Structure prediction request, 569 residues.
Amino acid sequence: MKNQNLYNYIISIADNSLILAQRLGELCGHGPTLETDIAGTNISLDLIGQTRNYYQYAAKIQGEGKTEDDLAFLRLEREYKNVLLVEQPNDHFGYVMGRQYLFDVFHLLFMTEMLNSKDETLAAIAKKGIKEVSYHKRFSGDWIKRLGDGTEESNAKMQEAIDDLWVYTDELFDITEADAAMISEGIGVDTSKFKELYYTEILALLTEANLTIPESKYFTRGGKKGIHSEHMGYILSDLQYMQRTYPNMEW
Amino acid sequence: MSNEQIKNLEEIFEARIARDEKIEPKDWMPEKYRKTHIRQMSQHAHSEIIGMLPEGNWITRAPSLRRKAALLAKVQDEAGHGLYLYSACETLGVSRDELYEQLHTGKAKYSSIFNYPTVTWADMGAIGWLVDGAAIINQVPLCNTSFGPYARAMVRVCKEESFHQRQGFEIMLKLCNGTQEQKDMAQDALNRWWWPSLMMLGPTDAESIHTEQSMKWKLKRKSNDDLRQQFIDQTVPQAELLGLTIPDPDLKWNDEKGVYDFGEIDWDEFWQVVKGHGPCNKKRMKDRVSAWDNGKWVRDAAMAHAEKKEAKKLKEAI
Ligand SMILES: [Fe+2]
Ligand SMILES: [Fe+2]
Ligand SMILES: [Fe+2]
Prediction:
């Protein structure tokens, strides 16, 4: 492939949205209120929309005549490059909102930078995505405030989720070989530029929500290299079920 | 109020309905009208949200990104339908929480069709095509029902349901133009959903209660059997277009009557499912109740946070 780095770069961004959408898709009809079910579905839908744009573009760059679905459904686990954060399970609503918020803050900063990408397609995806992602962040941030501030029980549960998910935040800023190449070409987003901002923003909201940031400086990483948590195989079993069981068919 | 006065009000009320005027929540209405509407609208709302479960079952396994997005959008629409309908109920002075309570304790019913399992992807097609199709037949007449909020909710709901129906048909069409495995999957789904869809239009007229009153209030405009006939006559040509066989050996065009004759419906099965012994009644209820119970701390937190915020605002104002 002529443009392997660009392809890898797009895939890793797309996989974040895909796997998070997949996690949200598990919840529909099982949430605490009808309104949160609607919002969760809506966020999942936005993310799927983004992945379609990314995979279509990646398939074009790859130039092997593959489709968005080939890329979304027919890779091996090690070829998915999403961060570990987005594959974490829906243990309870605090985890769902915690995972969402920790990703959304990153995602919005990322999209805002991607607007300036020299790659027109990526800039266009960002332009459309920013509105969606701002809404996601407002929704998840508001819930973190409600849960952190609400009752003793909700505060404890929200804190539990933040404590557990915190270890996955640092990986968001890992720079792979493809990332570095794309940054140097003015196509990729240099995430180191807003790493501090990311943590400052989160600290402010968590403080407002009577929550604290874990003391530990140990972080877990691997997804961006394709080394996933044990959850990933199960996520892919669902995701790939139809495509693997009935290969080469149209739906 | 004397009996005489009430009778007078009732006469004025019935005359308004007869003139096709809409009844609004603040208007005087007979208690029975209020109760019947709460029952029917909440049953409808419950059906929308229980209906999210069998289709939600396929969101993570949808075969393509396009289908996944469409299914998410559909299930989201159903949640929205639930929302409008609960809101319409609330205008009659009953809270959503009370209605949930009735659902979760089994006091309130929901459409029995959702007690059947969705076992293959083709079920997403069959549900859209047949179940949303039958729902439209039930609901289009309600766009002109006498209670304003219900009628308005139905206009919006029906528009979306007909979109769902087309989408379901399109899923079937794709399968039917596909491989033998896909065609078999489509036929199998039709075999399983056909009879329950016919039952969805309600018990046969001889066994149906409250029909006369409902006709007067425009909650019902055609009998169950007429609606069923309409559904069959509309759906058979669509099945032919798909190249699928309706699983009824007695199905035959009746030239004299200009409708399809069809075989006997297994009403024992219908009543079995209605009474709680269908393949998924227990699972649907368990899923609903556990979503509600597991969400309690979240709803409590939202309430507590809102109260604290309110109190803070008040304190600042003083
Ligand atoms: Fe609906
Ligand atoms: Fe409906
Ligand atoms: Fe529908």
About this structure: Residues B 78, 132, 161, 164 surround fe (ii) ion (ligand 3) (CB under 6 Å).
